[in-house]
Amino acid sequence: MPISSRAALLVIDVQNDFIPGGQLPVPEGDLIVPLINRLGRQFKQVIIAQDWHPPGHASFASSHPGRKPYDVIQLPYGEQTLWPEHCVRATPGAEFHAELDLPHAQLIIRKGCNPDIDSYSAFLEADRTTTTGLAGYLKERGIDTVYMVGLALDFCVMFSALDARAAGFNAFVVMDACRAIDLDGSLAAAIDRMQVAGVGLIPSTEILGSCG
């Protein structure tokens, strides 16, 4: 499938803490990196999203005495799953996987920077009102279609895809270039939500061809 000049690849959170051996590992998260590199070479426009939390972030279980990772609490903006400390800014865990090779990427968009608000989506923070500026950047560049890859499929990839659709973009998730946490059925729920929202769920062969 030829890639339109009005399409962009959004690479989500391929960072050390989400790779096996990190603080919040996504199973097989390292295995998608070579495929993401190959996909990246098909796009003129590549954007990389990066979790970039300050120490003591509100989404960390350690910030809430008596709570443990994966507990669910209420924060001022709504329900929040608590996570192990991860992707703390300027730490090795927040760095991109060493083999991620996208030298032509023109934008790194950092999210989760507000200490009081989590941000799964590369477009909109968890309060659902604070934007990251990504939608405006894409529209200024004449982009109308966004392909998404990365980690984790059932959280940051899903929310980015839903928000891309809500912002008026055509949205596709390259399924074999993602991996999921699958926390209590979150993968099946994510697939349902994306399909209902009109997100295309495609294999990488639709971009690379059968020999990709």
Provide a concise account of the structure shown.
Its EC number is 3.5.1.19. It is built from five helices and eight strands.
> In which range does the helix fraction lie?
10-25%
Tally the structural domains.
Answer: 1
Number of distinct helices: 5
What oligomeric state is this? single chain
CATH class: Alpha Beta
The CATH homologous superfamily is called: Isochorismatase-like
* Uncertain ranges: none
Lateral strand order in the biggest sheet: 5-2-1-6-7-8
Structural class: alpha/beta
Distance between the termini: 11 Å
N-to-C SSE string, H for helix and E for strand: EHEEEEHEHEHEH
Description of the molecule:
With 212 residues, the protein is of the alpha/beta class. The chain has a single domain, classed as Rossmann fold. 21% of the residues lie in helices and 22% in strands. It has 5 helices and 8 strands, in the order βαββββαβαβαβα. It has helices spanning 33-40, 134-140, 153-166, 186-197, 205-208; strands at 7-12, 45-51, 72-75, 78-81, 107-111, 145-151, 170-179, 200-202. The strands form 2 sheets. The protein has a 6-stranded parallel beta sheet. It has a two-stranded antiparallel ribbon with strand order 3-4. Helix 4 links the parallel strand 7 (170-179) and strand 8. Helix 3 packs parallel to helix 4 (186-197). It is globular. The mean pLDDT is 95.
Write the layout of secondary structure elements.
Blueprint: E1 7-12, H1 33-40, E2 45-51, E3 72-75, E4 78-81, E5 107-111, H2 134-140, E6 145-151, H3 153-166, E7 170-179, H4 186-197, E8 200-202, H5 205-208
Parallel strand pairs: 1-2, 1-6, 2-5, 6-7, 7-8
Antiparallel strand pairs: 3-4
Helix pairs in contact: 3-4
